[in-house]
Amino acid sequence: MNIKLKIRTNLVVSLCILTFSFTSCQEFLEVETVGRTTIPNFFSTVDGLEAGLTGAYSEMYNYYSSEFYKYPEVAGNMVDLNTVSGETNIDMINQFNFISDPEQEAGVVGYIWRKIFKALANVNNIIEYCPILSEQFPNQIKQIERVKAEALCLRAICHFDLCRVYAQPYNYTTDASHLGVPVLLVTPGPDDLPSRASVKDVYDQVIKDLLEAEELFADTPMKDAYHVSKKAVQALLSRVYLYKEDWDNAILYSTKVINDSELAYNDDYLAMYNNLIAGKEAILRLNGTLKSKSLGTTFYAVSSPLAMPADTLMSLFQDPEDIRLKLFKRTGAISFVTTKYHITIDFTPEEERYDPFILRASEMYLNRAEAYSNRNELDKASKDLAQLIARALDKQPNEIDILFDSKEKLDEQIKKERVKELCFEGHNFFDIIRRKEDLVRGQSTASNVKFLPYPNDLFILPIPQMELDANTNMIGNPTVNN
Predict the structure, then answer these.
(1) Structural domain contains residue 28
(2) pLDDT per residue as tens digits for the range 394-430
(3) How many structural domains compose the chain?
(4) Does 86 reside within a domain?
(5) Phi, psi at 212, each rounded to 5°
(6) Domain range for residue 268?
(7) In terms of pLDDT, which residue wins out, 54 or 332?
(8) 435 contacts: CB under 8 Å, gap ≥ 6
(9) Measured on CA atoms in the order 251, 253, 254, 256, is the torsion positive or negative?
(10) Element (H, E) at 357
(11) Residue 179 has what DSSP assignment?
């Protein structure tokens, strides 16, 4: 099998895409196994299915709390690296300077690839065993359907995220026929050599999974923001349709979420970052209890961080009353750090954690505003924009005047508001390339790259060389894999 996981000191570590050994499920399912416990044996009960889902969330956290979450910020134009030398930061420096190497297995190129495919292996095994358990335990079908719905959403996230990193955006070609990533619905067998599907086919599968998950959830209430819910599925559909430029459906699903959500105001807004709570407007975020703390203690640390807000970001905040400015800390005459990953309440070492957001309500207003604008419903777009600005300034929406004399002027305001609202949450670079924009950085950036025109082969990462070597059906990306 080429998409492989390898056992090393009882840990499952993938080497290529995701090959899976049924005798190596200790880290995979995060359970202690006795002897040669197999996946079929593990999934012989609904309790085993639930435990597998817990393991799947853990694998999702592993890639969201590391290279995948940092990459779109470092490759974008709103973050600077605090240093451009030293082994501790070398991997992100490569992405900062757009010199990603396909041989970089122990770094961003290899890590994102195999961490996401490892998470995908988890969810595919859960989905595979749901029908079997439904037949064996008909009195628990509702529970099994809920587990399957969560797993389908996680599978959609995996495919969508892989496509955002290793493939050009949906609108790169008129029919999205350009190369995407492999679509894997089952764990590959020993002789399987998966190939890359088109971006259209990847998106079609993502949407199919999400629509099935939405149906399976039915009227199941949201448990909490740390588990996939029907609202999370609809929020992800809002984002996927936005990337696809399906404006009608982006509006439809944004509206569904907005009608069932609330924004966080004042101290509640700050608390969702600085307190150990999910937050009022959280739709889906990953719980980092007893897991890696590097987002808050290293990369975005308030003391000697590796990544800092660029002057291009800070210049967007024109009103000193903007509550989002309270999520920055001045460290010099012109330097700032983000405090989105800084806990300000008392906590014990065991309580300390950093929970990356996947989806929250503010994004839905931004998605809908952008979609309305592209449907030339500018008044509706401006009302959504006013809602977020009013929240930021502690005013009522009717007190906010959105001034524009063209669609382009309104789009520019939406774009700026999106940057201010979602900074450091894994959006910036993906937003730039899906809008077909040039990458323009401030002149003070520490990067060697201040400008890259769109379209550009450098806007995606290379396929890891080890994957290309192992799988003759796998095709690399132009330029970056040459």
Answers:
(1) yes
(2) 999 999 999 999 999 999 999 999 999 999 999 999 9
(3) 1
(4) yes
(5) -65, -40
(6) 5-280+357-452
(7) 54
(8) 415
(9) positive
(10) strand 357-360
(11) B
Q: Rounding to the nearest 10 degrees, give the CA dihedral for residues 256, 437, 155, 250.
A: 20
- 295 within 8 A of 336, measured Cβ to Cβ: no
Indicate the length of the chain as a whole number.
482
Q: Indicate the pairing of strand 439-440 with strand 451-452.
A: antiparallel
The residue whose two tokens read 């399987």 is 192
> Would you tell me the crossing angle of helices 141-166 and 108-136 to the nearest 10 degrees?
160
Asked whether residue 477 is domain-assigned, the answer is no
Residue that the structure tokens 């800070």 belong to: 314
Count of C-beta atoms within a 10 Å radius of residue 467: 26
- The pLDDT of 136-144, averaged and rounded, is 97
In a domain, 342, yes or no: no
List the CATH number of the domain containing 54.
1.25.40.390
How many whole angstroms separate alpha carbon 67 and alpha carbon 294? 11
Instruction: Look up residue 328 and give its two tokens.
Output: 């920055």
Q: Find the angle CA(338)-CA(386)-CA(382) to the nearest 5 degrees.
A: 120
Pairing between β-strand 328-330 and β-strand 307-309 as defined by DSSP bridges? unpaired
The whole-angstrom separation of Cα 225 and Cα 227 is 5
pLDDT digits (tens, 9 = 90+) for 425-446: 999 999 999 999 999 999 999 9
pTM: 0.92
Distance separating alpha carbons of residues 70 and 245, to the nearest angstrom: 25
Determine contact, residues 23/10, Cβ cutoff 8 Å. Answer: no
Residue found by looking up tokens 């817990």 in the block: 54
Quote the CA–CA distance of 199 and 209 in Å, as a whole number: 15
CB-based contacts of 217: which residues, under 8 Å, 6+ apart? Answer: 146, 149, 229, 230, 233
- Among 249, 265, 247, 246, which Cα is nearest to 257's? 249
Instruction: Give the separation between CA 475 and CA 482, rounded to whole angstroms.
Output: 11
